[in-house]
Every structure is written in structure tokens, then in C-alpha cells.
User: Which sequence fits this backbone?
């Protein structure tokens, strides 16, 4: 199937669907027929287009679209599914964003020549769309987003050396950036799910908003005014100056990076911890004299419970660790460096317990227990007990699947990675 799907109607229609009348479309759209008919993807797509253009208001279009999406998803034809999804108008923007993000995830190795930061942001934003629509995931947002971030890291780690060479990031820098995007998103998403008058269906990461959405401004127009109204500090994390500063802190230490740091506009207005990270990154370059971008006293005076302080403290600690692991010399005065070490030693980097293997390495718990995506805990428990009575030798398997679905963050991960929203 060609990606230029708008031209599909001009192409010759296969003989099997060439002379479709409305009545025939009605007959062929019967779910029982479609479940047994041997229609190719091209034929099914042509059937969908024919119905869409002859009877666009009919529920048949929805039936055919679901069948087409399901077929492409089940056969893992992600490239073709992405083409179809981009060509078919989806009324619910949040669902379309979620679906596209999944296709980016499963095709990530083929997209490494693109903007990696934007791709990371797109995947995380798609996950946020799923969480936003499903209240069952609202009670553990931080872990849900953190687990998805970990899946992205694990995916990058599977790429062969040839593809890793395409990345402008080293593994440590990339992981630090993913952590930052995930942390920001978690904080904003928690505000969103507790907002009574929220009309948004997309809560983006900074990279999604500033790179992916920069052309259409589709999200920007509603999201930034809402966030500015509920939290004037968090909205600063979506400013271009802040975003560029974060990118520089996770960049590899080089002379060009250090010069770019000094050229940053409005750097004096950045959060003290972010300025500290920038100063550490710039000072890691040999024979480069970095001006003092932050005073130690500013660091000590920050409220440790402030959300933005926690986020930028994490970046500062990661940058310090990165610098100390890659160079034996930091071009700061001995007194300042001693003060910084003392200050940083008193800080702890928040760690989240994460899996070392992908959730995809496990069997699908929904399938194991034969329960729908919206199954409640009582329904799952009842099904587990029934299955154990029928197959007592598989009790441990059923219990593991139950545990995966009783943990809302793990359940979200399986939901996101294994299912395509065909509505």
C-alpha cells in the first residue's frame, strides 16, 4: 500500500470491490463476514474508502476502520498503519496522538535520523493521552510515566552499534534527557487529572510542544494558558530558553557546547540549579574558562520541596556525576568546586525502582486471563479463581498476570504497548 493514500481513490479498484453498491457494502461490512473473509489489506482499505466516500455518516465506516487498524496492528505492519492513520482524519486528537506515539515506539530504530528529543517527547506524550482518558491510571502517574520512560531506554539499548552511531547522544545523556521529560510530564499530568474544568486531551512534554507542535500550535494554544493559570513555575519549563538550556546540560562536553552555553539568552533568569548544571557542563571542557553562572548561596536558599527545584536538582546532580565520570579536571576555582562538592554531597537523587527487562518480554496478562481492558479488580480476581480451578498447574502464571493488572502503573504499560485504539 502506498503512503500517498489520497491518490488511492484514483487508482484502479480491485475486481473484488470494484462494483460495490451501498447494499453490497452493508453486506460485506457485517462483522461475521469480515472475520472470515480473506480480504487483503489493500482490499479492506479500498472497501473502507468506498464506504467513507459513499456513506460517510454510517457506522459501517467505523466498523471497517476498526477492522483495518486491527489487521495492520496484529500483523505488525506499523509503517502501513502509520500511513493510513495520517491519511484518515481522527476526530479525537488525543487518541490519534496516542496511536501515532505507539507507531513511533515500534519503529524507533528506523527513525534515528530524526529529532531524537522530539521522538522521545512524542512517545511520552502519547502515553499521557492514554492516562488522561483512563481514571484507573490516575492514582500512580509518576510510576506509569517512569515505566514508559524505562521502556524507551531499554529499546534504545537494543539497537545495534551501527544504529547507535547515528545518535548524537551518548547513552547517559539520552537517559538523563528521558528522565527529565518524564519528570516534567508526571508533574503536569498530575495537575491535569485533578483539574475539574480541564478541556484538554493532550498533556505534552516540553520537547513535544516545542518541536513536534511548533508548526501547528494545535496544543500550544490551549495548553500553555491552562498551565500558566494553575502553576506559574511549571509553565517556565515549557519556555524555549529553558528547554535549550536542558539540552545543553545533557550534551557531551565540547568547546562548541560551552560556547553555546555562554550565548544562551536570558540565562541569568534560569533556575539556580539549571545554571549550576550549565556551569558544570561548560567547566568540563579543557582550557575553557567558564564564568560563575550561579553562587553557592543561591543553591542553599532553594526550597527543597518546590517542584521545579526538585526537577532541576536532578539535572544538576546528573550533570555533576556525568562530568566527574568523564573528566578529571573541572575548570572552576578550588574554593568554588569544594563548596559545590559539599553542597551536592548533601543532595540525593530520587531513584525509581524500574525493571531491567521490557514488559513485552512477558506474555500479555489481559490475554492470559481473558479479561477486557476495562476489567475491574473484582472481575479479574473472579476470573483468576475460575482459571485456577480449571487449570491448577498454571496457578503461578495466572497469579503473575493478576499482579501485573492489579498494579496500575504496570497495567498501563501493558495497555499502551499491546493495544491500538481503533475507535
Assistant:
Amino acid at each position: 500500500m502506498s503512503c500517498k493514500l489520497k491518490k488511492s481513490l484514483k487508482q484502479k479498484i480491485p475486481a473484488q470491490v470494484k462494483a460495490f453498491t451501498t447494499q453490497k457494502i452493508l453486506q460485506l461490512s457485517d462483522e461475521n463476514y469480515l472475520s472470515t473473509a480473506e480480504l487483503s489489506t489493500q482490499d479492506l482499505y479500498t472497501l473502507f474508502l468506498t464506504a467513507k466516500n459513499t456513506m460517510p455518516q454510517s457506522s459501517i465506516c467505523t466498523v471497517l476502520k476498526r477492522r483495518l487498524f486491527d489487521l495492520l496492528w496484529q500483523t505488525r505492519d506499523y509503517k502501513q498503519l502509520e500511513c493510513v492513520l495520517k491519511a484518515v482524519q481522527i476526530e479525537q486528537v488525543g487518541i490519534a496522538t496516542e496511536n501515532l506515539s505507539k507507531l513511533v515506539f515500534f519503529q524507533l530504530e528506523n527513525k534515528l535520523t530524526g529529532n531524537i528529543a522530539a521522538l522521545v517527547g512524542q512517545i511520552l506524550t502519547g502515553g499521557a493521552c492514554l492516562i488522561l482518558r483512563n481514571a484507573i491510571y490516575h492514582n500512580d502517574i509518576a510510576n506509569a510515566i517512569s515505566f514508559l520512560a524505562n521502556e524507551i531506554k531499554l529499546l534504545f539499548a537494543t539497537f545495534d552499534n551501527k544504529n547507535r552511531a547515528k545518535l548524537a547522544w551518548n547513552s547517559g545523556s539520552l537517559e538523563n534527557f528521558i528522565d527529565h521529560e518524564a519528570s516534567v510530564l508526571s508533574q503536569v499530568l498530575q495537575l491535569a487529572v485533578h483539574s475539574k474544568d480541564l478541556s484538554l486531551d493532550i498533556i505534552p512534554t516540553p520537547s513535544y510542544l516545542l518541536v513536534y507542535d511548533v508548526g501547528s500550535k494545535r496544543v500550544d494554544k490551549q495548553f500553555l494558558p491552562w498551565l500558566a493559570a494553575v502553576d506559574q513555575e511549571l509553565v517556565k519549563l515549557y519556555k524555549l530558553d529553558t528547554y535549550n538550556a536542558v539540552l545543553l546540560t545533557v550534551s557531551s562536553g565540547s568547546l562548541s557546547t560551552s560556547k553555546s552555553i555562554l550565548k544562551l539568552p536570558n540565562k541569568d533568569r534560569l533556575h539556580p540549579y539549571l545554571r549550576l548544571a550549565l556551569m558544570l557542563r561548560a567547566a568540563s571542557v579543557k582550557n575553557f574558562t567558564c564564568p560563575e553562572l550561579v553562587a553557592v548561596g543561591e543553591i542553599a536558599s532553594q526550597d527543597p520541596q518546590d517542584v521545579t527545584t526538585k526537577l532541576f536538582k536532578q539535572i544538576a546532580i546528573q550533570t555533576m556525576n556525568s562530568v566527574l565520570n568523564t573528566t578529571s579536571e573541572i575548570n572552576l576555582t578550588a574554593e568554588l568546586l569544594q563548596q559545590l562538592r559539599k553542597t551536592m554531597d548533601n543532595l540525593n537523587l530520587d531513584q525509581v525502582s524500574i525493571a531491567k527487562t521490557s514488559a513485552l518480554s512477558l506474555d500479555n496478562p489481559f490475554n492470559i486471563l481473558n479479561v477486557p481492558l476495562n476489567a475491574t479488580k473484582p472481575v479479574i480476581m473472579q476470573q483468576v479463581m475460575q482459571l485456577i480451578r480449571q487449570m491448577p498447574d498454571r496457578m503461578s502464571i495466572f497469579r503473575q498476570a493478576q499482579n501485573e493488572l492489579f498494579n496500575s502503573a504496570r497495567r498501563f504499560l501493558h495497555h499502551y504497548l499491546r493495544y491500538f485504539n481503533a475507535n
Summary: DSSP finds 22 helices and no strands in the chain. The chain has four domains: 1-89, 91-238, 239-345, 359-418.
